[in-house]
Specification:
Elements lengths: L8 E5 L5 H10 L3 E3 L16 H5 L10 E5 L7 H10 L5 E6 L2 H14 L7 H7 L2 H4 L3 H12 L4 E5 H6 L1 H12 L17 E3 L2 H16 L3 H9 L1 H7 E3 L11 H22 L8
Parallel strand pairs: 1-3, 1-4, 2-3, 4-5
Antiparallel strand pairs: 6-7
Helix pairs in contact: 3-7, 7-13
Length: 279
């Protein structure tokens, strides 16, 4: 363990499972101190910057019971999980949200369209961009995280609760982190409505530039630009596509269901041994 890291919780993933909502709510919570920008990618991409650099990404907050980062990529990196297990204290807690795998896969595909990473139709993109499907294999990735970090420290919350009852989802997050539930936070405020890029090639260029800026330590600037409403309106427009899980061709829907079936069985068996908030 690295003694001077202030962090005692992390959101590990999955992606497209409510991480922006979680970051926003926890940033309002009086007992939580978050990194100055969402998604530092320290444990997977920027570990070479060192523990002192990582510690500087958190403001000093003596009253905080939980200090941590929301980064949805850590769940998918074995190396990141091993570093987390080595560097964080024994009382650290780790959040994971799970989602219907077909719906998460569609959301991931729409995101790649938004940032200019693919122009393929969905039935081709699931092969040309394999992470679209791979990141929906919750059983596989949570099992590895629990094995490395400890089954008693990985807390799983279903994304569907956020869609149906944001307040209840907030209670589940508070319980998972062992902090009080604060009822007057903005639980019902919607974040990240579906969007599409006005100029996908430009968005991809800007995204690549963002990674370069992060390499030079400008995480906060990148985070500010990503959350700036004027920037978002200039780059994106409301998504008018009607692609949903229900609108998929029956053959493709059945194919995806079969792809995820064994992993979903694995997940459900695994959840019997992991701490879950009672919802």
């Amino acid at each position: 363990m690295t003694d001077h890291l202030p962090v005692n919780f992390l959101y590990l993933g999955g992606d497209k499972c409510g991480s922006t909502w979680i970051y926003r709510i926890l940033s309002q919570h009086p007992d939580v101190c978050l990194s100055t920008s969402k998604e530092l990618f320290y444990f997977d991409r920027f570990y070479d910057k060192g523990a002192d650099w990582y510690a500087r990404q958190f403001k000093t907050s003596p009253q905080a019971l939980r200090t941590g980062e929301v980064c949805h990529d850590y769940l998918y990196s074995e190396r990141a999980l091993e570093r987390i297990a080595r560097d964080l204290p024994a009382d650290a807690r780790f959040l994971v949200t799970v989602r219907n795998p077909v719906e998460r896969t569609l959301s991931h595909y729409k995101y790649l369209l938004k940032i200019g990473r693919t122009q393929d139709p969905f039935d081709k993109a699931i092969h040309s961009q394999p992470q679209i499907v791979e990141h929906s294999m919750f059983g596989k990735h949570i099992a590895r995280a629990a094995s490395i970090l400890g089954h008693d420290r990985v807390h799983v919350v279903p994304f569907e609760v956020l869609k149906s009852d944001p307040v209840q989802f907030g209670k589940a997050i508070a319980a998972a982190l062992d902090i009080r539930f604060v009822p007057d936070l903005t639980y019902s405020e919607t974040v990240l409505a579906a969007q599409s890029a006005r100029a996908p090639k430009m968005v991809r260029l800007l995204r690549d530039t963002g990674w370069l800026l992060r390499r030079f330590g400008a995480q906060r600037l990148v985070g500010q630009l990503k959350s700036n409403q004027l920037v978002q309106r200039a780059l994106f427009k409301n998504d008018t596509s009607r692609l949903t899980a229900r609108s998929l061709a029956p053959g493709l829907s059945a194919q995806l269901t079969n792809v995820f079936a064994a992993d979903q069985d694995h997940l459900h068996a695994l959840l019997a041994y992991l701490p879950r908030a009672r919802i």
